[in-house]
Structure formats: structure tokens, C-alpha cells
Amino acid sequence: MQLLISSVCMALTSAVIGNAYYQKKQFYPAVVYITKSNASMAVIYIQFFVIVFMFGKLLRKIFLGTLRAAEFEHLLERFWYALTETCLAFTVFRDDFNPRFVALFTVLLFLKSFHWLAEERVDFMERSPVLGWLFHIRVASLLSMLGILDYVLLMHAYNSTLLRGPTVQLVFGFEYAILLTVIASTAIKYVLHAAEMRTDTPWENKAVFLLYTELVIGLIKVVLYLLFVVIMAKIYALPMFVFRPMFFTIRNFRKALNDVIMSRRAIRNMNTLYPDATPEELRQSDNICIICREDMVNHSKKLPCGHIFHTTCLRSWFQRQQTCPTCRLNILRAPAVNSTALPRAPGAADEPAAAVGAAPAAGQPGPANATGANASPAIAAPDVGLGRANGTPTGANAPPPSFAELFGDANGFPNLGGIPPPPLMPMLAPFMVPPPFAYFTPVPVPPPPMPLDLTKFTDEELRAMEGNQRKHIEERLQLLRNITLMLDSAGILMNQYQGLVARLPPTTVSTSATETTTSATSLADVASTTTLASTTSPVSSAVYDKPSTSTAAAAAAAAFAAKTQEAHQIKSVAPTIAATVTSTSVTDKITIEDLGADEDDVPTVAATDTIAATADAENEDSSELSELRKRRLKFLEERNKSPDSAERAASE
Amino acid sequence: MAGSALRRLMAEYKQLTLDPPEGIVAGPISEDNFFEWEALIAGPEGTCFEGGVFPARLVFPPDYPLSPPKMKFICDMFHPNIFADGRVCISILHAPGDDPMGYELSAERWSPVQSVEKILLSVVSMLAEPNDESGANVDAAIMWRERREEFNQIARRLVRKTLGLPT
């Protein structure tokens, strides 16, 4: 087909030239004759294009060899787009439309095609199994040749613009500048690919280099396009023909930017949050990175879910998605849960402490709770906090240990990395009358024994209490029984409280001082009950050796206690008792809802008490408990908003 | 050292050759290009596609395995989850984020732990149990749901066609 066209063309051209020469007999008259005749010129033009095409084929043979089907397809597609854009450009420059102009555009298109092909070739490098020296010579020479041509033509356009003011050379100068950036990025990619091929191990940072190359080149291109559009719009008309490539360039740049941001985030996450897989962990697993299906010798990371991958594989995946490839755990949503690292407490100390600080600090008491006979710092802590908030030390321990003392443990864990210690409450006294213990008398159930101070346990004792033996299980069950008892009393308290609220007149301002204190006291009770209930879940889930679940809940409970104190603080600074009452009732409403949920929960926990400690039952309960925990966490989220409402009430 | 996508594809090819799953043959069309594979899938036994051998083509993206390959049957197919042009529509082939049918869970989507073998096994089970919720081929989905006998007949005719038997 091509052969036919070129031979027909050749025949036509020779006929035209022969005819002219035959008629005029001499060289110059013949040339004049041909240029004057439109038909002859058409033939000559066509011949010109055919020659360009053939030249292109020759160059392709030299520099690229045979094209792959995909390459050819892409070339054709881009060529048609470029052609239509060129035609659009003609409309802007219709005044100086002449053969020279067409020729320049042809050269531009011709060079563009080779740029595309070179790009494709270099992209293909990464995907082809074997590349000979011929490939390298070809690509290198093609790239340097194109680069030099671009530079020469760019300089030519620049000089002619300087000499003769803005002409169509402006467009060419811009186009060659763009092509120069294309060549630059292609050359960088080529160097990177070639460098990787020379080594026998995968080059880990190549992806990062490629990413930044893309970003920088994209930025240069975007700036060029914008400049061009502005200049063109000022001198000629809006250059419609660059809108399509400009759109794609901007889109690519945005994508590159996004990739860089994502990649940076992924790298940061990996460096700070996830521990390197240790050799024995690698030996335990089948030692194959499931992303690239290659052995993991070094540079592997362990995710919170326990799956291990190559650092580089993970990084490129995290650029797209922030989930574990195997189990799809969202790594951004659960950054601090480092449960798997916790059981090996001694080794955990040298982990990136700042990031996971919250987890060990809150998580360590979890297993400890389960073991203490009736000791629970999680329960003690909120009690202490509330007690201090009310100015009444309710706990048996007269100088209540601070949060830091309670949650920090002997292992030297960083203390409460994420949770700020609750502020002390010095100014509560003026408005919060310390409720006399007489108001506690309606409680028919005697308050359960107060937990021992866990900080007094030594490491050996704590470790001795962990385990699956009967003794340990009995101890845990005992603890659960205590919790049930507490919950029961909370339920009764709740009933009383509800009765009290029902008896309160709707206008709380006229309430007597006694009633104010009563409601304040009850509020304190209720709040402590909710705290208690919320601590139940970490404790009970800790019973089933699930520190991972307990960490979050325990941390949440601590946060909750802090929140409660904040609410009290707000109350205390309110100017009048009336305001106090109002804010109290606001907080009350919230706690009522909470307690409703608590009462639902009571049977669940009670059930855990009665069921024998068989493994099956444990599993069943733990699912129930996880449900409970979910509800609790949801409530705590809602609860976060409550200080706002209290504040609003106080300002009224 | 070649690119990671290529190495992974080579590893998968090796594994598929050494330990081929039942009823599946797959490999690159040419050793020069590991990014285009051809697969032969035997119709699962006990279904209307039993006995058939269906050729398909897999095209891998340059960033495989971070992005899923595309799969297309190159024989006539009539199935609720296969487009009229042969493209296979199963969730494992869709990257999380794009959801052509708007119902797939991200847990069923592509992830780098998937492989050619898993894709092909999913396709086999898709042949056995069409998902008539996703209407890649609505006609086929309706026929499969309402006129099963007719669907089976068409499937059997396709089976004979793939085997080169007169229909």
C-alpha cells in the first residue's frame, strides 16, 4: 500500500518534472513553470510529504527498529490529535500562511512523533526481559539527537523573535521548549532504568526519583503552557490549539503532585508507625513478600495487622491506597494500635515511642486489669478523677494517685503519649458543695470493694497472673463479678436518679439549694457510673487476652474522664448557682441517655459472669463485648460534643 | 534487573507452569512481552459451560500488581458478567475506587495479593455461578434468571463452538 502510493507519487512527480523540462528545455524556465502551475505544485507538495514520510521510516528503522503494535497505535492516535491542533493553529496564523510555514509545522510534527516514540521505548524498558546493547545505542543516540535538534530550533525561534518581534516563531519556540522538557524527562527515565538494569538487586529509590522527575517536569510544563497562553492571548488570540495538551499536562501535574504527597505520607507512616520485621518474624512467616512474590531478606515492614511486606512494595501500594494489601485494614484510621508488638513488652520499649505511646500506655494496664483480683486502675482512675472534681475523695486511697502514676507503669513506658493528663481542679470548691455521704445512703447495694492500686504490683506478679490456667481464670471471673456488682448498683442509682429528676420542677432556677447539691451529687454518681461502665469493656475484653481491643477503649475511657472533669470545671466557673443548675441539667440529659445504654449492657456482663470459662463461651462473649465496646466508643464520640453544649448553657 | 512488574509476572508464570490449577492454562503470548497473556479456561463441570475451553486474553498494566490486569474473552460468550465484547466484569478485576456497577465492596476488589491464578479461578467460579446483580450483559442476566433452560441451551451451543464442533 505504502509502496504503491510512493511509487505512484514518484511517477507523478517525474511526469510533472519531465513535462516541464520537455516544454521549457531549460532549468530556470522549467522551475518557474512548475511553480506557476497549481496542479504541478500540488503534485510537488504531495511528493514532499511522501519524502518526509519515507525519511521518517528510514530514521525509525535506524533508531527504533520495528515498532510494536501498541507503539504504532499510540503514535497514530497522538498524531491525529497533533494534526488537528496544527490545523487549529493555522487559523490563528492565517495571515502568514505560506509553504515555509507548512514546512515548519511538518518538521515540528515529524520531531514530535519521534519524541513520542522515544518516550514509549523508554517506558518499555522496564517491561522487557532482555535488552541488548543495540537498544541502548539506539535510544541514547536518538535522545541526544532529538535533544540537540530541539535546542537548535528553540534557539532559532528565540533569536528570530528577538530580531523580528513576535511571529509564528513564538509558537515554534514554545513547542520546542515543551519538547525539550519531554526529552529531558525521557532521558532521566532512561538513565534511571538503565542504572537499575545494571544492578542485580531492585533499586529501591527509583520510584521516588521517577516521582520527583515527573513532578518537576510537570511543573515546568505547566508554567510554560500558562506563559504561552498569556503571551498568545495578548499578542494574537486565545490559542485554542494548546488547550487540550495543556489540560492533560495540568492533570498529569496534579496527579504527580498527589502521588508525591501520598508517597511522602506513606513513607512517613512507614518510618514512624510500623516496626521493621525482625529476622525471627521473617523466619516464622513464609518469607515471601506477597506483593512482588520475592524473598524478604531485608527492609521489610510489619503492619499493625501483623502482615509483613517489603518496604518498597508497601510504599508504592500506599501511594494508591492506605490499606493492608492482605486484610485491607485501613492503616491511616488505626495508626496507633500496635497491638501485636505489645505482648513482647520488653522489646517494645525501643519502638518509635512517640507514635505508639498512647497504645502501650493505655494497653499495658489492660492485661494487668485482668489479673488483679479486684484491682483495676481503669476503674480507680476515673473514680479518683471524679472524686477530686467533686472535692470528695470517694476512693479509699486518701491521696489519690495521679493519672500519670496510675497509667504509667514500671516498665518505663512513655506515659500517655496521646492523652494529655487531665488538669487539676483547684477552683471547684466555691460552687460545688461537697456532698455529704448521707446522700449516698439510699444505695442499698454496698459499694464494691475498691480496687487495689495497681502500681504496687511488681512485674513478676503481673506476669504470673497472666495465663490460661484455672487460677488465673478464676481471678478474672472474680473481677467480672465485681464489675457486675458495680453495674447493678449503678442501675439502682440510675433509677433513683430518674425518680429525682421526675420530681424536680421544670424551672430549675427555683430549685432549693439542697436539691441543687443533690442533683450535683447524683450527677457525679451517674458520671462515675458511666465511666465505670465504659471501663468495663476494656477490662472484660482484656480478660480474653485481647489487648488490641482494650487499648483503644482504655484510652477512650481516660479521655472520657478528662472530658467529665472539663464539664465540671465549666460548671464551677459559671457565675451563679442558677447557671450551675442549668449546665448540670444539660449534662444530666446526656448522662441519662448514656445510662439507658448501660442498663442494656448489664445483662451482657452479668452473663459473662455466670457462664463457665469454656473457650466457646469466651468467644461468644467476646463478640458481645466487642459490640458493647463499639456502642461505648460511639457514645464517647457523642460525648465529646457535650462540653460544648455545657459551655453554651453556662454562657446563657 | 528488570522492572518489578516484569519480575512478578515472570514469577507468576513460573508458578502457574510448575503447579497449574485444574482446568486453567495461562501464559504470555510471546516471551518478548510478558504483559499480554493468553489463558484457556475449561468450563466448570456440572454447569452449562461444562466441556468448553474458552480462550481469553489478559493485558497487564505497567504498574502491575498495583493495578489489576484487564481480561477479555476472545471467543463468543453469553454470560451475565461478561460484556458483549468479551470483557469480564468481576470485582477482583476492579481497582478500589472505581466501581462501574456501584455495588462492590472494597474488600472484593483488586489488591496486590491477588494473582493471575486467583483471577482465573474467580472467573471459573463466575462461570459456574453467575452474579445476576451486576448486569454486564443484561440480556444474559435476565435469561439466566427467568429462562434458565434457554440460557443453558445457548451456553451449550457456545461450548460446541469453542470446540469447533458443528452447533
Automatic annotation (TrEMBL), chain A:
GO molecular function annotation: ubiquitin protein ligase activity; zinc ion binding
InterPro entries from the UniProt entry: HRD1_E3_ubiq-ligases (IPR050731), TPR_SYVN1_N (IPR057992), Znf_RING (IPR001841), Znf_RING/FYVE/PHD (IPR013083), Znf_RING_synoviolin (IPR058051)
Chain ranges of the RING-type domain: 289-328
Membrane topology: Multi-pass membrane protein
Origin: domain of life: Eukaryota
EC numbers, comma separated: 2.3.2.27
Protein name in UniProt: RING-type E3 ubiquitin transferase
Organism whose genome encodes this protein: Drosophila lebanonensis (Fruit fly)
Gene name tied to this protein: LOC115620403
From TrEMBL, chain B:
GO annotation, biological process: ERAD pathway
Catalytic residues of the enzyme: 89
Protein name per Swiss-Prot or TrEMBL: Ubiquitin-conjugating enzyme E2 G2
Record's catalysed reaction(s): S-ubiquitinyl-[E1 ubiquitin-activating enzyme]-L-cysteine + [E2 ubiquitin-conjugating enzyme]-L-cysteine = [E1 ubiquitin-activating enzyme]-L-cysteine + S-ubiquitinyl-[E2 ubiquitin-conjugating enzyme]-L-cysteine
Family: Belongs to the ubiquitin-conjugating enzyme family.
Keywords annotated in UniProt: ATP-binding, Nucleotide-binding, Transferase, Ubl conjugation pathway
Keyword Nucleotide-binding found: yes
Gene3D superfamilies cross-referenced by the UniProt entry: Ubiquitin Conjugating Enzyme
Organism listed in the record: Drosophila lebanonensis
Enzyme class: transferase
EC nos: 2.3.2.23
Function: Accepts ubiquitin from the E1 complex and catalyzes its covalent attachment to other proteins. In vitro catalyzes 'Lys-48'-linked polyubiquitination. Involved in endoplasmic reticulum-associated degradation (ERAD). Required for sterol-induced ubiquitination of 3-hydroxy-3-methylglutaryl coenzyme A reductase and its subsequent proteasomal degradation.
